[in-house]
Specification:
Elements: E1 6-9, H1 11-27, H2 29-42, E2 54-55, E3 62-66, E4 72-79, E5 84-92
Length: 105
């Protein structure tokens, strides 16, 4: 049996998710909270399978988790020694992932 990882949201990632929800509240209010719930619920798979995602092509040891049914990626880093996953960013899948400024780190 594999150990479960702890997911920790860094402040920039929390801000990203908040920005997405606030943007959607203005445009499509009924969708806003369901998008947040979908993102958070789909991430639970990382607790057991942290390497399920695609490696980020631009930054070492960073992964991109595609949210099914939505145009968003959750960018994260795995720390196997401490069984921790840090959520670095949440971004639209069309955003330039080669630019470190888009990760707000």
């Amino acid at each position: 049996m594999s150990a479960n990882y702890q997911i920790e949201w860094l402040e920039p990632a929390k801000d990203d998710l908040r920005d997405i929800v606030f943007y959607l509240i203005d445009k499509v209010p009924v969708l806003a909270l369901s998008v947040q719930e979908a993102i958070e619920s789909q991430l639970t798979v990382l607790e057991t399978f942290p390497h399920i995602s695609q490696r980020n092509a631009y930054f070492d040891d960073v992964f991109d988790f595609k949210i099914k049914g939505l145009p968003y990626l959750v960018v994260y880093k795995i720390f196997p020694a401490t069984l921790k996953i840090e959520i670095l960013a949440v971004m639209h899948d069309r955003r330039d992932r080669s630019n470190p400024k888009n990760y707000r780190l």
